[in-house]
Amino acid sequence: MSKPKILIQFDPDAHASVFDSVVAVDSGVDQLLLQPNVSERDVQGLVHGAMFTRGPEDLRSTALFFGGSNVERTEALVREAKKCFFGPMRVSLMSDPNGCNTTAAAAVLCAQQSIDLADKTITVLGVGPVGQRIVHLVTGPATEGLVRPRIRICSRTKEKAVKLCDELRESIPSEAELIPFQTGSAEETIAAIDGADVVFGAAAAGVELLVDGWMEGERPPAVAVDLNAVPPAGLHGVEVMDRGEKRKSTVCYGAIGVGGFKMKIHRRCIQMLFESNDQILEVEQVYAVGRKLMTD
Amino acid sequence: MSKPKILIQFDPDAHASVFDSVVAVDSGVDQLLLQPNVSERDVQGLVHGAMFTRGPEDLRSTALFFGGSNVERTEALVREAKKCFFGPMRVSLMSDPNGCNTTAAAAVLCAQQSIDLADKTITVLGVGPVGQRIVHLVTGPATEGLVRPRIRICSRTKEKAVKLCDELRESIPSEAELIPFQTGSAEETIAAIDGADVVFGAAAAGVELLVDGWMEGERPPAVAVDLNAVPPAGLHGVEVMDRGEKRKSTVCYGAIGVGGFKMKIHRRCIQMLFESNDQILEVEQVYAVGRKLMTD
Amino acid sequence: MSKPKILIQFDPDAHASVFDSVVAVDSGVDQLLLQPNVSERDVQGLVHGAMFTRGPEDLRSTALFFGGSNVERTEALVREAKKCFFGPMRVSLMSDPNGCNTTAAAAVLCAQQSIDLADKTITVLGVGPVGQRIVHLVTGPATEGLVRPRIRICSRTKEKAVKLCDELRESIPSEAELIPFQTGSAEETIAAIDGADVVFGAAAAGVELLVDGWMEGERPPAVAVDLNAVPPAGLHGVEVMDRGEKRKSTVCYGAIGVGGFKMKIHRRCIQMLFESNDQILEVEQVYAVGRKLMTD
Fold it and tell me: What is the pLDDT of residues B129-182, one digit of tens each?
C-alpha cells in the first residue's frame, strides 16, 4: 500500500498561494504542508526533511511544489532544492511561480492547435516571465528544434527589446532568430505584428497592447493568444472565453479559454509528481505534459 | 461527486486559532488551509485564489473562515473579502473573531428559551464585541422588529455608556430604546438590573459584575446569562454549567452551559458554508442558524 | 466513532520541521496543524484551543508535538504547555526537538541489544542534547536504577567536562558516577575510551572523534554507537549502516542503523498520543516505548 501523498508547498511570499493549494487538493494530494516565507537558506533543512523520512520505495509519495508571486525568488529556491538531491535520494518537484510555466505551456499548445509553429514568424508582446517561457518553448520543444521560427521580441523601447534578445539568447538554441521590436506606440505595435503568423499577448493586466483595427490590417496574424483575463483585453477583439473562435481572419484564444487548459496541465503535473521520485517539472517538462494531454 | 471541502482560515494574529481549526475539522472540513498574519492588503490575492481555481459548480466546496483575537482587525479583513466577490463568482464565508458572533447568538437564544424578549427590559453588563452583538440581536432579529425591548447599556462611567449608546444607534433600528447606565460600583450595578427582565454578563474574564445578594433584591431579573467561564462568576451565584437552572427566582445560564450550544452553532455554520457558494455568515445569520437548531 | 486525530505541531523555528510533519502523517495523524514561530507567550492560547474544543471523551484525539532545531527553546514551550493542563482537562504531548529524545533512546537501546549496561563503564563523546539524554537514560531507566554504570563525560577542555558533570548531576540519580574527561586531542580521546565497555559518539556532524586505530587498542569498547550520519564517521571504522556488525572486537552501530529504529520509536510515540489524553512523552517515556518495541 502506498503512503499518503504529501506535497510541500514552498512559497517565498508571506502567505502560501491559495490558488496553488486548491489545485493541489484537487489533484489528489492527501497532505499539503504549507511553507510560506521561505528564503534560500531555509531550503536545505526543509528538503532534507522530505528526503530523509521515508524509505527509498516511498520517496515518490513525497513531493515539492514551488510557487510564489516573484518568479526569480522562487527559481532561486528551486536551485537550492536541486542541490540537495544525490543519487536515488531525491523527491520530485514542480516549479510554477505565478503560474508562469503552466500558462506559457498552455498558450503555446493552444496556438499549436491551429498552426504548425515551425518556420513561422511569431510576435511576443510583453516579455516578462510568461513571455520569456513562450520564447523558450517556441524555439525549442514546441518546434522540436527542426525548423526554428523567427521571434519578434517586443518592448516599449528598442534598448529594452535588444537587451531582452541578448538575455534570451543565452538560454535558447543558438540558431533561433530573435528580432527586437520597439512597441512604444499603437502604430509600432501594429507594425510588430505585420506579417507575423502568431501573436502572443503576455503583458501585465490592464494594458491594451493591440488597439481596435489590428484584425483589419493587410496581413493580420493567423492566430492570436491573449493571456490577459482582466478587461480591457490585451489584444482588442479577442474575447476572454475564446478557445479557437475565428474573428475576421484570426483564430483567437482568450485568457480563460487558455486558462482551463492551463489548469488541466497543472493538475496533471501534480499527479505525475507522485509517479516516481525523480521528476523535475519546469517549463519544458510542463509543456511535454500538456502536449501529451492534448494528443491523448 | 463533490470536491473536497476546503476551508481557508484567515487570522490576523501571528498564529491561526487552534480553537477555530479544531471546530473546522469536527465540522467535516476535508482540507484546512491556515493563513495566519493576514492583513488587509493580503486579502484580495488569497480570496482570488479561492475564487478562480474551481469551476462555478464546485465553488461551494471552497469557503473562508475569519477568526482572530481582535474583532476589529478581523472585520476589516471580512470587508476586504466581500469586495472581491462579483456576480456568481464568490465563495461562502463565516466571521467569528474571538467567537463573538456564535457566543452572542447562543447567549440570546438561551435567554429566549426562558422568556419572550419582546417588550422587555434587558441589561447588558460589559458592552464589548459580544455585548454589542447581543444588543444588535435583541433589537433586531431576536425580537423580529415587532415590539422592541428597552436595553440598558452599562459602562463604568456615564460618559462611556452614553458614547456606547450613540455608537450602537448607528447600526440598530432607530426605534430601539437604549438607556445608558453608569455601573462603576456594586450599588450602581445592582440599580442597573432593578426591574430588568434579563441580564447578560459579557465583561472581561475575572470581573465580578454582580456581587452576592443581587438575586435577593426586590425585582431581580427573571433570566441571567453569565458568559464568564473563569472564576469568579461574572454574575455571583450563576454556576458555570447552568443551563436553565432556577436559582432563587432567576433562571440561570452559565458560560459552559451556553458554550455547548455555541459550539453546535459554530459547527452547523461551518457545514452550511459548503451547501452553497453565496453565504455570508455574520452575527444575524449565525443567530438564524442557532434559532433553527433550537427549534428543529 | 472517534474524532479525526489532530496533531498540533509546535515549532519555535520560522518553519515547522518537514521531517516531523512527514513522520506525523506516516503515523496516522488525520489533520496536522502547523504552528511555526511559536514563542513561550503564544503557548497558552494555542493549548487552550486544543483543550477547550472537544468534549472530555474526545480529548484523546487531539495531541501536541513539540519540535525544533534548538532544544532549549522547545523545552521552554513544553514547560508552558504543561502549566495549562489541570485535572482531566489535558491533551497528550510529545517533545522531540531535533530528534534528541528518539535518537538518544534508540542509541541506548541499540547498545543494550549487545550488552547489559548495569555496572559498566560508558564513554560519551559529544555531550550536547543527545549526549545528555544518553547520560540520563544510562544512569536511570536503562539500568533500572539497580547497578549504575560509570559515565565518562568528555569535552574538549577539562573545565567544560567538569561543568557538564556538575550540570548533569542535578537531573540524574545522586549515586550515578560521572567522570570528566578532557578530549582535546586524538590521544586524549583514545584514553577516554580505554577500558570503557561502550562508547557513544554524539558530537556535531563532520567531526572525527576517534581516529583510525582505536579498534586496535589494548582494551577497545565492546560496543560502539556512532550517531553521525554525514561522512566522515564520528568513530572511524563504524559504517553508517552498521546495526550490530562486529568490527575487530567491537560491535558497531552506525547512524542509519540506529536511525531506522529511531523512526519506529517516533512513529509509535505519535500513535500512542492518541490512545489517551494524559500522556507526556519526553526522553524517559520515549525510551520506554522503544524498549517495548524491541521486546515485543
Answer: 999 999 999 998 888 766 778 999 999 999 999 999 999 998 887 778 999 999
**Cα C205 from Cα C226, distance rounded (Å):** 11
Phi-psi sector, B126: left (phi>0), alpha (psi -120 to 50), beta: left
- CATH fold of C6-95: Rossmann fold (3.40.50)
Could you give the CA distance from residue B77 to residue B75 in angstroms, rounded to a whole number? 5
What residues in chain C have per-residue pLDDT under 70? 1, 145-146
A58 vs chain B: nearest CA distance in angstroms?
23
pTM, 2 dp = 0.94
* Contact assignment for B19 to C54 by CB distance below 8 Å: no
C17, C25, C69, best to mutate vs chain A, most A CBs in 10 Å = C25
Of the partner residues B30, B42, B53, the one whose CB lies closest to the CB of residue A23:
B53
Say whether pLDDT at B207 is over 90.
Answer: no
Q: What is the pLDDT of residue B145?
A: 66
Would the CB atoms of C15 and A35 count as touching at under 8 Å?
yes
ipTM score of the complex?
A: 0.92
Tell me the C-alpha distance between C17 and C67, whole Å: 7
Low-confidence residues in chain A, pLDDT < 50: none
Subunit partners of chain B (3 or more CB pairs within 8 A): A, C
What tens digit of pLDDT does each residue of B87-113 get? 999 999 999 999 999 999 999 999 999
Q: Choosing among B19, B22, B33, B98, which should be mutated to test the C contact, i.e. which has the most C CBs within 10 A?
A: B22
**Backbone torsion region of residue B28, taken as left when φ is above 0, otherwise alpha when ψ lies between -120 and 50, otherwise beta:** left
Measured N-to-C along each axis, helices B255-273 and B283-295 cross at an angle, to the nearest 10 degrees, of 100
Classified as helix, coil or strand, B79 is helix
B35 contacts chain A (CB < 8 A)? yes
| Cα–Cα separations (whole angstroms), residue A195 to A139, A147, A216, A247 | 19, 18, 13, 17
Residue C146's pLDDT is 65
Distance of CA B41 to the CA centre of its chain: 26
| Location of each CATH 3.40.50.10280 domain in chain B | 6-95
The packing angle between helices A100-114 and A129-138, to 10°, is 50
DSSP state of B246: E
Q: Cell numbers for C107, please give them.
A: 542509541
Residues of chain B with CATH 3.40.50.720: 100-258
Over chain B, what is the mean pLDDT?
94
Task: Give the CATH number of domain A100-258.
Answer: 3.40.50.720
With an 8 Å Cβ cutoff, are A25 and B48 in contact? no
pLDDT at site B143: 81
Could you tell me which of B96, B31, B140 has the C-alpha nearest to residue B268?
A: B96
Helix axes A255-273 and A18-26, enclosed angle (nearest 10): 60
Helix-strand-coil split of chain C, %, nearest 5: 45, 20, 35
Cβ distance A42 to C17 less than 8 Å, yes or no, reads no
CB–CB of B49 and A263 under 8 A? no
At B119-141, the pLDDT tens digits run 899 999 999 999 999 999 999 88
Would you say C214 and C186 are in contact if contact means Cβ atoms under 8 Å apart?
no
CB B123 within 8 A of CB B220: no
